[in-house]
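Dear V.,

Thank you for sending over the compound details. I've combined the ligand you provided, zinc ion, with the protein sequence from our construct and run the structure prediction for the complex. I'm sharing the raw inputs here so there's no ambiguity about protonation or stereochemistry in the SMILES, which I know was a concern on your side last time.
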Amino acid sequence: MKAVVIREHGGIDTLRLQEVPTPRPGPGEVLVRVRAVALNNLDVWARSGPPGGRPVYPWGRMELPRITGVDVAGVVEEAGPGVAGVAVGDRIVVNPIRACGECAYCLAGEQTMCPGYAILGEHTPGGMAEFTVVPARNVLRIPDAVPFEVAAAAPVCFTTAWRMLVTVGGLRPGNDVLVVGASGGVGAAALVIGRHAGARVIALVGSADKCRKAEALGAIPVDRTEHPEFSKRVWALTGAGVHIAADPVGRPTWPESIRSLRPGGCLVICGASGGERPDIDIREIYQHHRRILGAPMGNVRDFRTVMELVFRGALRPVIHAVLPLSEIREAHRIFEAREHFGKIVLVP
Ligand SMILES: [Zn+2]
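Below is the predicted structure of the protein with zinc ion bound, written out as structure tokens.
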């Protein structure tokens, strides 16, 4: 099969489709013919090296060579021994979380708290390929009317954003929500979920063009290049600060995200793409009863909830571009140049 195999860190010119052996499904696994796979930070960092050269917490360095690709939709091509409930030919989307299934966290339904928690495409070969092998219990059938590109655009970002805003953040209709990095995958998903849940969403983005796109999705845009102290703009818009700020960026935006919160409000975090050591005055947190809550990815319940809403058309993933997998370099270029608003999806 053809696959994008990352063998070393480097520029986009190191990316190429290569011929590698097609994997075979073991017991309890299925071979999936990949029909769509979405690009994430993880794919880009696997190639470029993690931001700042810092090992990825808590796992350390990714082992190379690696076929990345976390967000996969496709067709079941072959079932391994002992697979039930999934049939060859089924159209499916993959839950990228792997967990032991036996520890106290797994039994409580909190798979991402499992000590054995792992992610497809990071710890096991992923979907930037014509085929990939996944546990049969990780696949979810998708309705005929849902395109593969739409299904593949959702798993990581919508599950994470749902976890942040709803499961952990306790979002209520009428809440004010600030989404930092709203043009990124998680940010755009948070914007869409926030609007769906009846929140007023303020979207922090980095250009006039992205402001227009955020506005078209029902958010109130704030251009951070015009408002570097964006909390002042947030307070001017809301009069009282926001109930929830979702910030996947970290160091560059944390202080202003915290200042954007009303007393008792919470900052929900899932990443630190801009750096992990913010310079903050902790008195700004406790003196205003503010909270900071971690939400790295979501559990199986979060995944199934958002996918069901995507299948119904209630949540619509924002797709920036659909490219053939052979244009993997262009996909990485768009992503690194931050030209995108929403997901870049590749089709093998
Ligand atoms: Zn476990």
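A first observation: Residues 99-100, 102-103, 105-106, 114, 116 surround zinc ion (CB under 6 Å).

Warm regards,
I. M.
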